[in-house]
Amino acid sequence: MNNTIYETRYANGPASVKHYDTKALRDEFLIHNLMQSDTIIWVYTHYDRYMVGSAVPIKKSLTLEAIDPLKAKKFLDRRELGAINVGGPGSINVDGTTYSLGYKDALYIGKDSKNVVFNSDDANNPARFYLNSAPAHHAFPTKSVTKEQAKKLELGAMETANARTVYQMILSGVVETCQLQMGMTELKPGSVWNTMPAHVHDRRMEIYFYFEIPEEQAVCHFMGPVNETRHIWMQNHQAVISPPWSIHSGSGTSNYTFIWGMAGENLDYSDMDTAKITELK
């Protein structure tokens, strides 16, 4: 466990969150310490027992290890794992099989996998693996998904500043999973709004990870109930937890890319309760 750091975040309800000031809101929902060199970072949340983290191997390989809250011998004894590389070329070795991941490539790792090791091809341009994990009841096969192999959706429009390309990577129809879902959304130049119109999905929680935010730019992430929203200003390589009762939408001072990850009782990507833009408060 010498190379692993973790923390626990407990669930918060809307009645409590309405009283939070800026610091309390950021302390509870913002994940600001990802992508540390030669370290695996984990945040264990009590929203569907979802975990979010990162692994950045530079001087050495990094081995996935169980953390104490899991009460398991191996990390994936009762879990599945998704990884998307947002850095230089790298690889993940799963029980003796090596999977190469380029920039924006993904890997789904199934339950009961024993030995998972993260590597970078070049220490001067290290891989940066963004990680999500959810409880699993069945061992589905490990599978890699390149950006080109993902299911691609073109959404939004330049006129409403939300023209974007959605890449469904670890999702039903692309990869068979228990409940973990992950994908990536690229905002086109001139567009800044993601996931607008906003929505909630009470049947699953979500986490956003923002990257490709230009230097000296930022993203304002919106959360909260439809009729009482809050905002969190975010920097590059930061993530934010979105409870099931909360909208999750953002607007940047430039275009950017974000990775969305979800877990819950429903694998239907379109299962959401959309809010009209004019209803947001």
**Content of β-strand:** 35-45%
Radius of gyration: 18 Å
Distance between the termini: 45 Å
- CATH architecture heading: Sandwich
Helix content: under 10%
- Indicate the CATH topology: Jelly Rolls
CA-based shape: globular
What structural class is derived from the secondary structure elements?
mainly beta
Function: Catalyzes the isomerization of 5-dehydro-4-deoxy-D-glucuronate to 3-deoxy-D-glycero-2,5-hexodiulosonate.
Cofactor: Zn(2+)
Keywords: Isomerase, Metal-binding, Zinc
EC number: 5.3.1.17
How would you sum up this structure, described in words?
The structure is a single chain. With 281 residues, this protein is mostly beta strands. It has one domain (4-279): Sandwich (Jelly Rolls), CATH 2.60.120.10. It is 4% helix and 43% strand. It has 2 helices and 24 strands. The chain has helices at residues 14-17, 22-29, and strands spanning 4-9, 30-31, 40-45, 51-55, 62-63, 79-85, 90-94, 97-101, 106-109, 116-120, 129-135, 143-145, 151-155, 164-170, 181-187, 193-194, 199-200, 204-211, 219-224, 230-234, 238-242, 247-252, 257-264, 273-274. The strands form 5 sheets. A 7-stranded mixed beta sheet has the order 1-3-4-11-6-9-12, with no helix packed on it. Strands 2-21-18-23-15-14-13 form a 7-stranded antiparallel beta sheet. Strands 5-10-7-8 form a 4-stranded antiparallel beta sheet, with no helix packed on it. Strand 13 (151-155) and strand 14 form a beta hairpin. The protein is globular, with a radius of gyration of 18 Å. The protein starts with a strand and ends in a 7-residue tail after the last strand. The model has no long low-confidence stretch (mean pLDDT 96).
